[in-house]
């Protein structure tokens, strides 16, 4: 059985990508399905957001890309069924060490579907070789988009890059959806951006939008997903609904 491997990518920073990776993975895991979250960002925010300090871990995704076994790198989190391949700042060096066209991650994830039916890969905020490696390993893509002025410009650039990866490295890669994040219904800008994104990308855009939320921003500092920090919050409700949409879209 092949895993559903979702890359969460956007070359823009601060769009809610890591927040989405953590919380979507947690929601699927809490439903009883084993999930692997791979932190492929040298900033290691998904790692710290689940309560781990990179400097206290023996191995990371840097070691994974340099020959370490997946089982040796993966750690259990405080969320049942959720496992993490943690990151470390050393991973920044892999941007230089990887060769264009490398498919290391794809090779590592081959045949793990029986253990991890769902895999989420948190990509760095760039279109560099780490992101390309993730896109070559994934069969699905989720694009978080902040409801702000430059959203469409960055999204168009990303989808062009995805098409290149699909043509040259990974014809299996499909776009599961575009997720609107940090949505504040009180502002004209957020409503206008959401409307414009839906107009351009139609059914690719998830029905659910993730609201701008203090509780979502606070959760990582406690090392837990929003479903553990405040399960009744608007942010938790949004990610539960997004996870359902993701599962339904296949």
Topology:
Elements: E1 4-8, H1 17-30, E2 35-39, H2 45-49, H3 61-64, H4 70-73, E3 75-76, E4 82-85, H5 94-97, H6 104-109, E5 118-122, H7 129-137, E6 140-146, H8 151-168, E7 174-181, H9 188-201, H10 214-218, H11 226-229, H12 234-249
Number of domains: 1
Report the CATH superfamily: P-loop containing nucleotide triphosphate hydrolases
CATH topology: Rossmann fold
The CATH architecture name reads 3-Layer(aba) Sandwich
Mean pLDDT: 93
Q: Identify the quaternary structure here.
A: single chain
Q: Biggest sheet: strands side by side, in what order? A: 3-4-2-5-1-6-7
Termini separation: 14 Å
How does the helix and strand content classify structurally? alpha/beta
Q: Spans of 5+ residues with little confidence (pLDDT < 50)?
A: none
Rg, nearest Å: 17 Å
What does this structure look like?
This protein is an alpha/beta fold. It has one domain: Rossmann fold (3-Layer(aba) Sandwich). 41% of the residues lie in helices and 14% in strands. The protein has a seven-stranded mixed sheet, with helices on both faces. Helix 1 packs across helix 12. It starts with a strand and ends with a helix.
């Amino acid at each position: 059985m092949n895993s559903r491997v979702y890359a969460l990518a956007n070359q823009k920073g601060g769009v809610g990508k890591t927040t989405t990776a953590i919380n979507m993975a947690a929601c699927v895991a809490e439903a009883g399905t084993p999930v692997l979250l791979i932190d492929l960002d040298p900033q290691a925010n998904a790692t710290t957001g689940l309560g781990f300090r990179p400097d206290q871990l023996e191995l990371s995704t840097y070691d994974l890309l340099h020959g370490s076994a997946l089982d040796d790198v993966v750690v259990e989190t405080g969320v049942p069924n959720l496992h993490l391949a943690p990151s470390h700042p050393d991973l920044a060096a892999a941007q230089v060490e990887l060769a264009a066209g490398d498919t290391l991650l794809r090779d590592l994830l081959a045949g793990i579907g029986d253990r991890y039916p769902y895999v989420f890969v948190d990509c760095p905020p760039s279109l560099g070789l780490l992101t390309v490696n993730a896109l070559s390993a994934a069969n699905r893509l989720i694009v978080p988009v902040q409801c702000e002025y430059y959203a469409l410009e960055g999204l168009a650039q990303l989808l062009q890059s995805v098409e290149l990866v699909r043509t040259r490295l990974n014809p299996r890669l499909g776009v599961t959806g575009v997720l609107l994040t940090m949505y504040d219904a009180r502002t004209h800008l957020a409503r206008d951006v959401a409307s414009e994104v839906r107009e351009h990308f139609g059914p690719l855009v998830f029905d659910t939008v993730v609201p701008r939320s203090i509780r979502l921003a606070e959760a990582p500092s406690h090392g837990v997903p929003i479903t553990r920090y405040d399960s009744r919050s608007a942010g938790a409700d949004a990610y539960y609904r997004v996870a359902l949409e993701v599962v339904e879209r296949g």
